[in-house]
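This is your field. Have a critical look at both lines of this record:
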Amino acid sequence: MVRNRPMADGSEEPCRPRLPSGSRTDVIVVTGGEGYIGRHIRSELLAAERDVISLDCVNPGSPNDQNCFQCDLTNANWLQEIFASVQEPIAGIAHLASTLRTASLSDPYRATEVNMLGTLNVLEAARNFGVARVVFASSVSIYGSKDPRAADISESDPTTPEDVYGAAKQYLEVLGDAYSRKYGLRFVALRIPIVVGPGPIGVSSSLWRTDIVDALRENKEREILIPFSENETLSIVHVKDLAQAFSILLNAPTLSHSSYNAPCEIWRLADLKEELESLNENLHIRFGNTVITGFPRRLNCDRFKTEFNLFPSLLKRLQDAAQVQRR
C-alpha cells in the first residue's frame, strides 16, 4: 500500500510524488535508492536535471524528501500503487534493489524471494505502466570463478554462476530479455564488479572499498586491510563512474546490446597499495589471505567503453580524493 505522511496537526497527507513544478522530463524510478550505489545514481540523475523517484525497503534518509518512498518490492500491490500515484510518465527504471551476495549466502530463501520475486514485480510494473527501459544491476558473479590465467572475461563468455546470488542474476537477465521480446520494453543488464568510492557503504565485509577512498581525505594515520593477497588482481570501478554508466544506459537513444560489463579497470592489488600510500603518507595498506571465488578477476569492458565513449580512471578519482585532504 502507499504510505501516508504524518502532518503537524496529526492528520495524514496522501503519499504522492511531488515533482518540481514545470518538470521537463519523464520520471526515472531508482529501486534500492537508499543503498550505496543507488544514492550515487540518484545524485547523477538529479545533476542532469532528471526527475527521480526513489524506492527502498528502508525508510527514506530524509523525511522531507517527497520523492523517496519505503516499498517492499516483494509486495506487488504496494509497488503498483506507488507507480499509479506518479502523475508524470515513467520513462525508465534503474533496478538496484536486491539482497547482496554475502547476505544471499547466509539466507538463500529470503534472497531468492527478494531478488527474483522483487524483480518480477518490477518488470510487471514496467509492463503495466508503459515504462520504456529497465536498467538492471546485474553482477559479474554470473560468470563464476575463472582461471586467473584466462583471458579477460567479456559478455560473450559462458555464464556459470556458483551460488544463489549469481544464479539469480543470470535467471533475471534471461527473464528481462523475455519481457523485452514479448512486451516491447527495453531491458539491459549492467554487470557490476568490485565497487569503490566514498562511504558509507553499509556492508561490514566490504568496508575496505570505501575506507581506501575516505582515508585519502584524512590527515591522520590509518591502516586498512584488503582481505585478498597483494598479488591478486581485481576489476574495479569507482561508484561515481558506475553511476554515470547507469545514467548513460537510461538515456541513450539506442542500445546495441542487452548486457554490458560495467566500465572498469584491472588492478593488481600491490600496485593499488603503492598508489594509495603515495597519495597519503598516513595511509598503510595490509593484505589478508582470502581466496577470490565466485567471480572473475579480470573483465573485458570494451563493449561499453567503445559504444558510449566512457573511459574511467580510478587513479584520477583517487587523486581527486587526496586533493581534498591537501586543501
Remarks:
- The chain has two domains: 23-196+236-265+296-312, 204-232+267-293+319-326.
- The chain has a mean pLDDT of 89.
